[in-house]
Amino acid sequence: MAYIFADLHNHTTASDGDFSPGDLVALAADMGINVLGVTDHDTLDGLDPALDAGKTYGVEVFPGVEVSVRFKREFFTGTLHVLTYFSSALLKDPGFVTRFKTLLAQGRGQGLVRARIEKINQVFGPGGESPLLSRDLNFEDIAAYSDNASRRHFAMALDEKLGISDKATINRIIGNDSPAYLPSGVELEQVKRFITSEPVVAVLAHPAAGSFPGEGHYKEVLPPVETVAHLLPEILDAGVKGLEVHYPGHAPEHKALLLSWAQKYDLLVTGGSDCHDNANRPVGASGADEQEFNRLKQEVLCAEKKSR
Questions:
Q1: What share of residues in the chain are helix, strand, coil (percent, to 5)?
Q2: Cα dihedral: 174, 176, 177, 179 (round 10)
């Protein structure tokens, strides 16, 4: 395995990783990694313990969050991820932390439930585009079942609260192919407002992983790189300043393509392992070199300085 200076994309038990923040930092230290990005999905909860562990093990922990961004376009309905990096000093700023958590809350949990209800009513409500409901679905219909509602709870509410028992009709309303389907994540416009007004630096995560040839744990349900290319102008307009080029799920030809995009648009180049476990997605599988990391770090420090 090649030497990795900065592995800038990793997950802990604060989201969906197998390792606690401290254990992840210890692993990185054992591998000789100088800088470890801790970037859990849509949460800041793992950052303070990771930073503490970094001091213990002599690893520079670089804080970030992998923000889920939802898209609903004619050519793509799904989620892309934006790695949002910032200075560790900002974790001591209650205003920044509250504003970040408020943004993230819109993409999961109650925020996402409310957005999905609004979309279902817009399409299938009595005054909607394709009326199927006897009345609008409301938040209380779903909240009666769970604080963390899933598709199953929506199906139960449609059956028990609105009298729709036909499974095909329910699936038409809440299935992935439904015109009312909203993937998880926050709207790009919400992300734009945050990253253009807060001292953060945003990088598009694994832009070409969806085009990785064959099967792989890094591919997941990401769109092909051609779809990302179609969305790229919107993404850059939202304030994204970099691309995660070095990634285990990027084929060589796609890595070359991403480097050409970075050069064309003067974007930061980063890299990371997207570690979730020690077997299929280990730490130290990919990363940025020292020069690439220093350019990113300089941007983060400049953003923090401007905000003072």
A1: 45, 15, 40
A2: 50
Cite the residue boundaries of each domain of the chain with CATH code 3.20.20.140. Answer: 63-107+186-307
| Structure token pair of residue 197 | 């007004």
Q: How far apart are CA 50 and CA 54, in angstroms?
A: 6
What would the two tokens of residue 19 be? 């390792």
Query: Averaged in consecutive runs of 10 residues, what is the pLDDT profile of the chain (308 residues)?
Result: 88 95 98 97 96 98 97 93 97 97 92 94 97 96 84 94 96 92 94 98 97 78 93 98 97 97 98 95 96 98 88
Per-residue DSSP letter, 215: -
Place of tokens 């979309």: 119
Q: What is the pTM of this model?
A: 0.91
CATH of domain 63-107+186-307: 3.20.20.140
Comparing CA positions, the residue from 38, 39, 19, 15 lying closest to residue 27 is 19
Distance between CA atoms of residues 306 and 199, nearest Å: 8
